[in-house]
């Protein structure tokens, strides 16, 4: 999958070809059916396949003052939900909800890109609801309340990628810089989402018990990127520029590990992305449930540097682009 200024091919109708082989590749658009039922599976892996099926729906709201992230996860024998509000003026997380529970009863994620997902525990609930051309996102917990609508009527180019990942196969859909309406309440303070944009991440795959990645992402109208190492690696590295979607090669992340506030250098091997990430603060969690463990550290900050348009070769400055660098390790 070498970089190319030519458009990505359209997304296939299914994840798996009729002969049982995954439709590996990077595409533009949405895969119609997120089902692995036709996948040819080695006999030993067939026995534990259901436990390796991981799905999640995630959204990040980027605002001039704050950043909000919400995720619902269904992973084999466990499920989880995360939501937090990062106040950029305070430089810290001001509200957060994190919980784990059984899949099916407490956590459920639809086999559909940007579709329904729900996590419930007692009176607390995190939910994604697809209503034709919008995605409704709600969080109802004493710690944090959110009610938002993400406009999907003109989603722009959606990245769809299908790759071996680290066990059998994995599919991801990503879209960004989407209009938002709604509000979030953090610490009793009502914060409107006017002027914010949303980035969506939908995942569905058959993954190894141990999964790790480092990922950087940021979006604003006309410019965005997703870069990762580990897990799917270069299969999900992409650049959104001027309404077009381009693939990127391997990404590298360099940082002084002894100083959590030191800048990160984020680059791609093809030279199309060269950025410095300046952290403003971070949020971390460590969950354990029924033998599953998950550790995540999400740094909120801004990217500065440049990207190069793959078709024209023109260099574009990137200044104060709000985004995340995430380190993740799970045993699920």
From TrEMBL:
User: Which domain of life does the UniProt lineage start with?
Assistant: Bacteria
Read off the InterPro entries from this record. Answer: DUF2804
Its source organism is: Crenobacter luteus
**Name of the protein in its database record:** DUF2804 domain-containing protein
């Amino acid at each position: 999958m070498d970089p190319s200024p030519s458009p990505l091919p359209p997304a296939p109708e299914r994840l798996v070809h009729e002969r049982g082989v995954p439709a590996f590749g990077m595409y533009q658009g949405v895969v119609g059916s997120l089902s692995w039922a036709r996948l040819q599976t080695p006999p030993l892996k067939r026995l534990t396949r259901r436990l390796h099926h991981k799905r999640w729906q995630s959204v990040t709201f980027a605002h001039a003052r704050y950043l909000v992230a919400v995720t619902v996860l269904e992973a084999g024998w466990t499920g989880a939900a995360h939501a937090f509000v990062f106040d950029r003026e305070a430089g810290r997380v001001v509200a957060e909800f994190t919980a784990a529970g059984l899949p099916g009863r407490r956590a459920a994620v639809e086999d559909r890109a940007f579709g329904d997902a729900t996590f419930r525990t007692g009176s607390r609930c995190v939910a994604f609801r697809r209503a034709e051309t919008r995605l409704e996102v709600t969080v109802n917990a004493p710690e944090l309340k959110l009610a938002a609508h993400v406009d999907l009527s003109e989603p722009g180019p959606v990245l769809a990628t299908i790759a071996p990942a680290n066990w059998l196969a994995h599919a991801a859909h990503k879209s960004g810089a989407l209009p938002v309406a709604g509000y979030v309440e953090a610490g009793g303070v009502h914060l409107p989402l006017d002027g914010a944009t949303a980035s969506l991440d939908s995942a569905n795959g058959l993954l190894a018990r141990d999964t790790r990645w480092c990922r950087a992402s940021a979006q604003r109208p006309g410019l965005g990127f997703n870069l990762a190492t580990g897990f799917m690696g270069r299969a999900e590295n992409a650049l959104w520029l001027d309404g077009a979607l381009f693939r990127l090669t391997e990404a590298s992340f360099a940082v002084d590990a002894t100083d959590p506030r030191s800048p990160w250098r984020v680059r791609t091997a093809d030279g199309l992305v060269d950025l410095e990430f300046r952290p403003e603060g971070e949020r971390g969690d460590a969950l354990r449930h029924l033998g599953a463990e998950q550790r995540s550290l999400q740094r909120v900050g801004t990217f500065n540097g440049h990207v190069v348009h793959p078709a024209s070769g023109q260099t574009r400055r990137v200044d104060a682009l709000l985004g995340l660098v995430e380190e993740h390790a799970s045993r699920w």
